[in-house]
Prior knowledge:
alpha+beta
Amino acid sequence: MKNENNNNNIVTPEKIDLDKVQIDENDTMLNRERRNIVSATIQANDALDAKQARKVNDTIKLKKKNPIVNFLIIAFLLAVAALIAIGAYLLVNRIMNYDTPKEEENVTTPVTKNKVESYLASTDKVRKFQASGSFNIGGTIYTDIMLLLAPSGYDLNTNKDYYMIIYSNGDVLSAEYGEYNIVGDKIECVSDNGNNINFTISEEYLNADSITGDFLIKDTEMKYYYYKDDVNANILIVNGTLLGEYAMYISSNTNEKNIIIDRFSETQEAITMDNGTEFVKSGNDIVVNGITLHSAY
């Protein structure tokens, strides 16, 4: 065998030229041995050629795969480099902004109202408070005092808000009304007869400056009927507390207002104030002077 492929280090086997082998036809055993050797050599050469062929093929395949492998390796390295660059940028940016104060945000903190403040804030409905105990008012002892605040917007003439306060001891019943304003934590009540009274708003009740006792929310035993448009406004407030039955009627237009407070009686047909003003029932509503007032309940 000879090596004629120095560059690839591949040995190309040379087959034996049988014509060069000296065979003595007379020596049968020797001829058989020679034939065996020749046959074995040929087989070895064939095997060697197949082995070398596989080696050469594997080498070619490896060379063909090299570009793909190289591409994948380069892509992987580029991805790793990109991730490292992004991480470095974020880290540097965080370090640079670590001590930078944030801009102040305009955050409006919600104002939390307590129970009484939330109740008073519903200015579109009647709100009622009641104190029970023993109260000396002008020399008379009362056991119950009720404060009712009318909804806003029923005085189209002077744009005032009105209240009614009722005093009761079971035998004596009296009431008065006036204008009220809520200023801070105070309800300032300016009475029509000069008996002004102020209430301090706390979390659970009202305290009067001239009456010792707690006025608690009493959103029961009263009802009201209303009508309002751009020209006329009417509201009847009826307090139905036993031995404390009193009513207040406010009617107004852009030119004038009229306020009546009085005791009342009620039947299935009508609500009648002691001064003679009658409110005829029509289903859940009432009618006065041709105007229908709608029930709030």
